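Worked example 4.2. Below are the chains of a multi-component assembly; read each line carefully before continuing.
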Amino acid sequence: MSTSKYDDHIHVLPEDDAELANGFVLDYSIAARSIQVLQYVGGWIKVLDVFEADHIVGMRKFPKRRMVLILDFDEAPNRRQEAEGRISSDLRDRVFLIGCWKDPQALKRSCSHRSFESIGLDLAKDCREDARTVWGNEQLQQNAAELKRMRRALKPILFPSV
Amino acid sequence: MTFCNRVYHVGVIRRLYINNFRCLQNFDLPIAGMPSALLIGKNGAGKSTIVAALEVLQKIARGTNRVGELIKPTDMTQGQSGIPVRFEIEAELKTGVYAYSTSFELPTGSKELCVLDESLKCDERFVYTRNGAQIDKPEFRPGGLALESFSIDSHLVALPIFQFDLVGAFANTFKQWLAQMLLLRPIPALIRGDSEGETLQPNHHLTDLGAWFTGLLTQAPSAYTKVYDYLRALMPDLKEIRNLPVGADARSLVFQFATDSGSIMIPFDGLSDGEKCFVICALVLAANASYGPLLCFWDEPDNYLSLDEVSQFIMAIRREFQQSGQFIATSHNPEAIRRFSKENTIALYRKSHLEPTMARTLDQMNLQGDLVSSLITGDLWP
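Applying the procedure described above to all two chains together yields the following structure tokens:
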């Protein structure tokens, strides 16, 4: 059994290589079997296409499933609005949109070229400790409101012992 | 003892160098400081030869000192008997940074290799050096540091028989780490849950898994909780793991499963191959936490696993070794490959059976597009 479909769980659908997400999942206190990182799809529109085509049915069938869609904002001010527009209102509470303001490479540059995995680990540590050390990075600031929503909805699933 | 050289977390290889051993010529495995790493490559690229090289070092640490039992002339690359076979390993452990080096040559007319040189250093200070038959060992004496010299048969490796004194007391930690490396190539169908005695040094096919389980719980009874918790998350109907006595010195592993409708006892042999791999994984996690840091080299850990388990399985091991120790895996499985990153995925390749193995991390290669696709098409390789 991977993540249990009948317990609270999270599927992560990344636009790019899953290295950041892999780093996040390496955190020692994460409830490992509550999160599954799916194959990356390449392209922000594809994230939404794949979400619609492959995941909406499953989300409606399994009400304890949440999805985190990771996409690049490519410095497009309306990207979040466009993406949110493609998420059905009945699923809106269980779908979360996050990503880099430009792309992961820009995040890596602004984190002194540390590896994606170590950045992912620090993002998990921030979540665990309600900090914004990396989430406050210029490439991630635009996620602030979504992050607040995620902390409320996902932190108890990911870090139940914290 | 100084700790000024500490760079990485403990239990990781800083350097592994091999020369003139099968397909490994002037070969450096770029895994310095990586808590976990993945080796990828075509069949025949040299992945198994790296394990074979580690096995030579492990055998030495486990007490095999006769060179002829460690390495044969046929192990020399393409019969190049004029070039010594060399193994060098540097590791960062709790008590210091250790560097062990040994090389073997084939004397003219001989059928057995002998030791050309050998040395062990701890934090840059020699524990001993050896040239041919002569060993030099620094010793603390009332007047200061003196050099003790003696001879040993050149067909014997010195490390297993060395009696370490104050100068080299910490070196036992290194020998133990080397001896306890987990070099795993399990074949579940051959693994039995019956055991006689106990061990913390299981064999590579894990046919002595039962003895390893006993040894682990003898060493650290609290390891049971770690083993159980991991397996319970995978098999929610697991109730208990018992290692029942079945004779004077024999035991047998049995798993009790229970639901509302009843319970059943299943011997280890009755588990599926995939479930046996879950048990192995649980023991690896508990072993590293209990008597590690360990080096775990697992050849294709994703074999026998269902597709939905591969990711969780790999990440569970990576997470454990993120704290201490080192996990090295080989894989051809796309889902396992995706659980590693460019900086800790090492591509091994060689152009032909006449060429040596080359190794590079993916971030040193100009990879365009999807890794798995480029492995399928073969475009990754030069």
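Take a moment to check your reading of the output against the notes. The longest helix of chain A spans residues 44-61. Chain A has one domain: 9-158.
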